[in-house]
Amino acid sequence: MSHLNTGDAAGGASSVGSFMGLMTSAKEKWDSSGANEAMGRVSASIPDSTKQYVGTIFRRDQLRTPAIFFGIGEERGFYVEKNISLLVERLRHNITFFYLNYFLMTILLFCLTVITSPTTLILVGIWAAGCMWFIRASSNGTLALGSVQIPQKTAAVGLGIVSVFYLMWVFQNVFWWTLFSSGFLVFMHALFRDASMHKDMEDAVLMEGELNEDAAFLNA
Prior knowledge:
- Its main location: membrane.
- This protein is mainly alpha-helical.
- The protein has helices spanning 2-32, 35-45, 48-57, 66-70, 84-97, 99-115, 118-137, 152-170, 172-192, and strands at residues 142-145, 148-151.
- The longest helix has 31 residues, at 2-32.
């Protein structure tokens, strides 16, 4: 029994070592291919104003807590609004107020759909195996396809293009299912969730310190 345990442990250690070696090799090939420099040039070409705008979109404070998202503790967190003008305003406010929650919900649905689809997992596994084969086959700087020698950078570009179209094909059904299901959930939440009491959250002033004439929040 002890021999079996020792063998299993050795096999597991060998597998982990092989995986770590593969990851190290992949990182080295990524660095040597100049991909980091290319990504740096792309990042440098993006205007600072654009970077700042994107940063404000994904700020942590834009993510609403579950209590606010589901109206927990509120007297009428969800109800049917019959006034059309108020309903339109509710939709507008909820979409702008909960947009980051809606985005994360869509990502979560996408991930759940992928991991619960055996066919998708198999196809992704085939793609991952192909990438691993490419890393090993081009470890000497070139990819040999029969008598043809392809430079590693050229082969990497080709692999990237093929991967994009392959993954688009793999995830097409998952993508559309996620899009429609998340769109339905977002619409229903935005339609019935009354978050009007949170409209002034961004204008709230933090009240701290002693209550006197010089208190910061009194002079805000």
